Amino acid sequence: MSYVNFVKKYKLEIAMILPLLLYILGFTIYPIIQTITLSFQDQYTKAFTLANYREIIGKTEFKQAFFNTIALTFISLTLEMTVGLVIALILRRNFRGKGLLRSLMLVPMGVPTLVSGVAMTYIFGLYGYFNALLQKLHIIEMPVDWASGGFKTLLMVSVADMWKVTPMVILLLSAGLESIPDEVYEASNIDGATAWQTFKYVTLPLLKPSITMALILRAIDAFRIFELVLVLAGRATPVISTFAYDEYRNYANVHTSAAASTILLLIIAVFIVSYLKIAGTKEER
């Protein structure tokens, strides 16, 4: 089949998919290639160099941003997987109001990240609801500045991120729980296993593929966190994405910003490759 005949035969399909291809090429592929290219260019001569990477690696701000990104991802994943698994196990049981609870659970997914970040400032602000609650319980005497930096700021952003994205984790784990046959639990019950033993030796091993998928997908997203950190913590607690933003927007360092973005891209690419390998292994089985 010639090229002309192919176009004539599939002209409708080509017309429908062309805008998407142009969007991906113009707003995803080309910017990525341009960013990687800039990261290896000298600012003045445009020659190939690793100076941009040496410059940002030598900066204390980048080291702090790198550490914060790893720590924030670890804390967020721990909270999301724990809360997500508990809620998924609850939703597996039949009880009154289950449908309503499942519907309410999905609400955070529909809230824009920027809006959820602003909403969280009313909770974790200096005179927010959380500080007011802690003072009423006599846990603290003076309001805590959760956005001042350090571990408490990472914890605050992780909790905000957990509220926003845990529904996705719940959906993934719920799908995994639904795939476990009831006969397995019946056999466990006949053998006299306790609820904890059933969870440890039956549910967790069979749920491992879904847990792995949820971990990798959430890790990819967690490394890209930007809006929540910018809204809740500002520049007090930088991550790689906000560091790259500051280098470009506030200091006009296009090449060092590109280098930081490329490092973040490399980290995310590792998790994407891991996800594709695991997904491929699961399909083969």
TrEMBL record:
> Start and end of every ABC transmembrane type-1 domain?
66-277
What residues form the membrane-spanning segments? 12-33, 70-91, 103-130, 150-173, 225-245, 257-276
Q: Which PROSITE patterns match?
A: ABC_TM1 (PS50928)
UniProt entry keywords in alphabetical sequence: Cell membrane, Membrane, Transmembrane, Transmembrane helix, Transport
What is one term from the GO cellular component aspect held by the record?
plasma membrane
Q: How does it sit in the membrane?
A: Multi-pass membrane protein
What InterPro entries would the database entry show? Answer: MetI-like, MetI-like_sf
Gene Ontology BP, a term: transmembrane transport
Subcellular localization: Cell membrane
- PANTHER family, alphabetically? BLR7065 PROTEIN, SPERMIDINE_PUTRESCINE TRANSPORT SYSTEM PERMEASE PROTEIN
- What family does the Swiss-Prot or TrEMBL record give for this protein? Belongs to the binding-protein-dependent transport system permease family.
Task: Write down what this protein is called.
Answer: Carbohydrate ABC transporter membrane protein 1 (CUT1 family)
Q: To which species is this protein native?
A: Caldanaerobacter subterraneus
